[in-house]
Amino acid sequence: MAARNDGQWPDAAPGTAHACLSLLVHTALDTATTHGASGGFTYERRRPETGTLYNVVRDNLQTLYAAVEDGFASPLPAFVRNEFERYLDCGILCRGFALLKCETCHEQRLVAFSCKGRSFCSSCTGRRMAQTAANLVDHVLPITPLRQFVITFPFELRARLAYDGKLLGAVTRIAIDSVLGFYKRRMRDEEGLAGQSGAVSVVQRVNSDLRLNPHLHAILLDGVFATDNGSPVFHPLTHLDDSDLADLLQVIRVRLLNFLQRRGVIENRDELTLLDDDFAEREPALAQLAAAATAGLLPAGPDVRQRPPIALRGQPGVELTGPLSVTEMGFSLHAATTASADDARGREALVRYALRPPIAQERLKLLPNDLVRIELKRPFSDGTVAIDLDPLSLLCRLAASVPPPNFHLVHYSGVLGAASKLRMLVVPPVPADTPSAVSRAHREHPATHRCGYRPWAELMKRTFQVDVERCSCGGRFKLTALVIEAHAIERLLRYLGEPLEPPCRSPARDPPYFKSQVLRRKLGELN
Question: Is the dihedral of CA 340, 343, 347, 349 positive or negative?
Fold first, then answer.
């Protein structure tokens, strides 16, 4: 977990102490965590301007804008431009901050505001990952064994699913319902139980090489709840083998293809030919961006590596690709990752993995030839362990990773669905004396609502066992002021010796826009 910061750049200056405290609730200290001498973690303020990703975006964003205006790259939707602009202000002190002071020794700490990005900001998406995982483990997921199902879809469908929220939602419901149906049938046939399982599914938008690929990470209760004298009792699944997974994948594939054909998305199931839905006419920018980022074409590619052409679809018949991992005609299913009911840390780690940010800072490196290297989490089938991209291509892939507004990324199903009558009976109870329960009493939420905001300090203590609110002298930090006026920011930063201006952006390059000579020669742009 890298730097965490959950503040927000305010639209207007709060005018009261109550407004200041309300804003601080949505603000977190910019931090980085490092190993101390004892092997634990220590606190220090995060400095985003020193990170590789920040510098790549800063040095190439104006070139991307110029390429868009020149017609070389796809026009960027407003929500994508906002994501880039806010990212460059995330954690930068000269954009405003909160001032905290130790009540005992009067040591000061500055709290920079964050962008609250939903895509590639490792700080904000990391904080969201930690908070959502804590909420799910504490308030949603019952104390049962968990199993992760990873479901991917054929190459031909990915660009369409990336920006059609309703279609992706329907595809998600069908896929997860098929898995829940498998649990129901298995427990009924082998154990004679009439029960139901539950799931929390997360939409991940990109591969490890940042090519656009909407796919599902579903956390399943590894068994079913059956009603016994009015109370639900959990019965775990006794075994799962490759043949079970192969049958399940075929069920998912057939149901999805039937639905897509009825919906008029594809012409027939054999060829997977997409029918025109006027998306390219209605949203030409998104259509061009999705097509380039899915296939790794210009300007979102090409990447520098040795790899055979992508096989779009295989032959009918399930292929075993690993333990509890199967694929058929572009669909794939993996279910080998589990966590036991008594493994609290393993359960939370499993949920965090499903919610993880698309890229980690340590996997990104700037090479001497001006290419950016992305180290893969796992090698590709041909042995590729990293890919090299021109910075402009990387920015195009980052642009495609931004989810559109109101695009839901987390879904609840089965006994964990909001409409399930069993939800209140199976989710962990909330102690009545907790702060979250007290605050919830003053809000109009349904009885099944359990999750809420978690302070940054609580997440840091939960993740790293670091009490960032405590000073080295033993005192506690207290909010002193919110510094948002330009003259006040300049005066205090000058006194502390901090930069008074944000890092300067590099000017746009002239055509050809690619920075790397390696890629220019590869594309035949240089003689």
Answer: negative
**Residue 369 in this model has a pLDDT that exceeds 50:** yes
- Determine contact, residues 354/147, Cβ cutoff 8 Å: no
Q: Kindly list the distances between the CA atom of residue 444 and the CA atoms of 422, 439, 440, 441, 448, in Å, as whole numbers in the listed order.
A: 21, 11, 8, 8, 12
Q: How many CA atoms lie within 13 A of 45 on its CB side?
A: 15
pLDDT at 6 over 60: no
Which residues, including other chains, have CB under 8 Å from residue 116's CB and lie 6 or more apart?
6, 8, 86, 124
Give pLDDT tens digits for 153-181.
999 999 999 999 999 999 999 999 999 99
Instruction: Quote the mean pLDDT of the chain.
Output: 85
Cβ-proximal residues to 118 (8 Å cutoff; 6+ apart), any chain: 83, 124, 125, 128, 402, 403, 409
Direct distance between the N- and C-terminal alpha carbons of the chain, in angstroms, rounded to an integer? 45
DSSP 306-330: --PPP-----SS-EEEETTEEEETT
Asked whether residue 8 carries a pLDDT value surpassing 50, the answer given is no
Question: Exposed/middle/buried for 298, CB within 10 Å: 0-12, 13-18, 19+?
Answer: middle
Q: Which residue has the tokens 């074409």?
A: 297
User: Strands, E, within 386-485: which ranges?
Assistant: 386-389, 410-414, 477-483
Contact 474, 104 (CB under 8 A): yes
* Distance in angstroms (rounded) separating the CA atoms of residues 53 and 74: 21
Which pLDDT band holds residue 432 (cuts at 50, 70, 90)? low
Task: Look at strands 146-152 and 212-221 and give their pairing.
Answer: antiparallel
Signed CA dihedral, 170, 175, 178, 179: sign only: negative
- Kindly report, residue by residue over 382-430, the tens digit of the pLDDT: 788 999 999 999 999 999 999 999 899 999 999 999 899 999 999 998 6
Phi-psi region of 465 (alpha: psi -120 to 50; beta: other; left: phi over 0): left
Would you give the DSSP letter of residue 382?
T
pLDDT tops 50 at residue 19: no
Strands (DSSP E) found in 103-240: 108-112, 146-152, 195-196, 198-206, 212-221, 223-228, 231-236
- CA-wise closest residue to 300 among 396, 407, 415: 396
The CA-based angle 509-510-515, given to 5 degrees, is 50
